[in-house]
Design a protein that fits this description.
binds 6-phosphogluconic acid; Rossmann fold; alpha/beta; N-(1-d-carboxylethyl)-l-norvaline Dehydrogenase, domain 2; single chain; Single alpha-helices involved in coiled-coils or other helix-helix interfaces; 52% helix
């Protein structure tokens, strides 16, 4: 920890849910914080909360009235943590800091969910004026307060200044078990264990990794939702009963934060009606864009990530409620199927396997996407470390990530997670059950776009031959786009003159 008389260690700008909790977390770890927000109510709010939590003793957060006061209150080089909405507000604060006299050695850390390309541009734009650094934060409100997963990237010398603070405030994992060490007590941060932060790479790489984290998050959430619909609508289970199934699954290989909170949501009664709350929540999903960006990036670079893309589409189709209502009485579905208890139990078991397999595929898609972009951008991403820092603090934290770390520790340049023996064995073992679950959903007319697209992804990758030969024939037929042959050297192009009577073949 730095020690400068009367000067604070870190400035936090933007005291919404995330900024406020980051400020309190940093202060809990014995750093002195200057806090600023354009809304003075928020500044007072964080000061009040600290006072309450610390019984008015040993207060470490100072409120600032403006950017000048903020800069004057900090030791140099200043560390300024921005927690403002992605987009124009980030540049707005950067301009305000420039006007207030921020200096070339000062470090400005963007912690929002910014577009990674914006971060690359910003680092270049502000070079020489201050160091624009970034660190995506995952874990929501509780994570920010008691230990998030942090994905810093940018100038390496800036990281040396920031690292001790980041290591202190990040979520911690027990190195032996790989499980999170969680303690949600103000003033008593977790100081033991491995920190869920690591330097990701050059500017933009941290935001890219966080974007893919969110793409996986979208897919993982949708997979759980599809399982819920199959159990609820297909097997006629109550929300509470589905919650029980999820609680049981959460004890096994599907253990994850998202599975745990889904069980809690399903078991919650509506305070207004007493019915299951989930049945009173309108089935229209929101989104802020990071899942979409992941899907777009996968399309642009040519990395198949169908399960992530389907998760984005699932949110889109959910918002078209009135069209769905109209079509629900217009389009036919299959006749209802009734299952006896033994068949129901077998389907629940098959669904657990299906969920596991689909989850492996969505992580495989996310990691392959990061690998392809890293190659294109010349980033040296350490995938074992990335999986490690997602084991606690973040939204996709899951026991399962330990196996991903092990897979990349065994082979750092793994081309695809499906190539790792441990995952290949599990998928081969469970693929029959996966098909059973998908067939049951299809036969009952229940949409499972993520579980089924993951199966198609699995089947595509285990197909030595795909019908792209016919596709190339079609392209050559109408557009003379040429094709390669299986019996001539790679790269040699051929074209058949389809319109000619004798249909001559020529090497192009
Ligand atoms: C996290 C979350 C967080 C947020 C996302 C998703 O890692 O803490 O991913 O960043 O919940 O922005 O939001 P949407 O579902 O609204 O897109």
């Amino acid at each position: 920890m730095k020690s400068h008389r009367n000067l604070n260690d870190v400035g936090v700008i933007g005291l919404g849910v995330m900024g406020k909790n980051l400020a309190l977390n940093i202060a809990d770890n014995h750093y002195r914080v200057s806090a600023f927000d354009l809304d003075t109510v928020k500044v007072n709010g964080v000061l009040q909360q600290e006072k309450q939590e610390r019984n008015g003793q040993d207060l470490r957060i100072t409120g600032c009235a403006n950017f000048h006061e903020m800069l004057a209150s900090l030791a140099k080089p200043r560390i300024l943590v921005l927690s403002v909405p992605a987009g124009a507000p980030v540049d707005g604060v950067c301009q305000a800091l420039l006007a207030a006299g921020v200096e070339s050695e000062d470090i400005v850390i963007d912690t929002g969910n910014s577009q990674w390309t914006d971060t690359v541009e910003r680092e270049a734009r502000y070079k020489g004026q201050f160091i624009f650094f970034s660190s995506a934060v995952s874990g929501g409100e509780v994570g920010a307060r008691f230990g998030p997963s942090l994905m810093p990237s940018g100038d390496e010398s800036a990281w040396q200044h920031v690292a001790p603070i980041w290591q202190a405030i990040a979520a911690k994992v027990d190195p032996k078990s790989g499980l999170p060490i969680e303690r949600f007590e103000p003033g008593n941060p977790v100081t033991e264990g491995e920190s869920c932060t690591t330097y990701i790479g050059p500017a933009g790489s941290g935001h890219y990794v966080k974007m893919v984290h969110n793409g996986i998050e979208y897919a993982d959430m949708q997979l759980i939702c599809e399982a819920y619909q199959l159990l609820h609508d297909g097997l006629g289970m109550s929300a509470d009963e589905v919650g029980d199934v999820f609680e049981r699954w959460n004890q096994g290989s599907l253990n994850s934060y998202l599975m745990g909170i889904s069980a809690e949501v399903l078991k919650q009664a509506d305070p207004m009606t007493g019915k299951p709350l989930v049945e009173m929540i309108l089935d229209k999903a929101g989104q802020k864009g990071t899942g979409l960006w992941t899907a777009v990036s996968s399309l642009q670079i040519g990395c198949p990530a169908p399960t992530i893309a389907e998760a984005v589409y699932a949110r889109s189709v959910s918002t078209q409620k009135s069209l769905r209502v109209q079509l629900s009485s217009k389009l036919a579905g299959p006749a209802a199927i009734s299952l006896d208890d033994a068949q129901k139990a077998a389907l629940i078991e098959a669904l657990e396997s299906a969920l596991y397999c689909a989850k492996v595929c969505c992580y495989a898609q996310g990691f392959q996407l990061m690998a392809m972009t890293a190659k294109e951008q010349e980033w040296q991403l350490d995938f074992a470390e990335i999986a490690k820092i997602w084991r606690a603090g973040c939204i996709i934290r899951a026991t399962f990530l330990q196996s991903i770390t092990q897979a990349y520790e065994a082979k750092a340049d793994l081309s695809c997670l499906l190539m790792a023996d441990s995952f290949a064995e599990q998928l081969s073992l469970k693929q029959g059950a996966w098909r059973t679950a998908v067939s049951a959903a299809i036969m009952q007319g229940i949409p499972v776009p993520c579980i089924s697209s993951a199966l198609a992804y699995y089947d595509s990758y285990r197909s030595e031959t795909l019908p792209a030969n016919l596709l190339q024939g079609q392209r050559d037929f109408f557009g003379a786009h040429t094709f390669e042959r299986i019996d001539t050297p790679a790269g040699e192009k051929y074209h058949l003159v389809w319109s000619a009577k004798d249909r001559t073949l020529s090497k192009v």
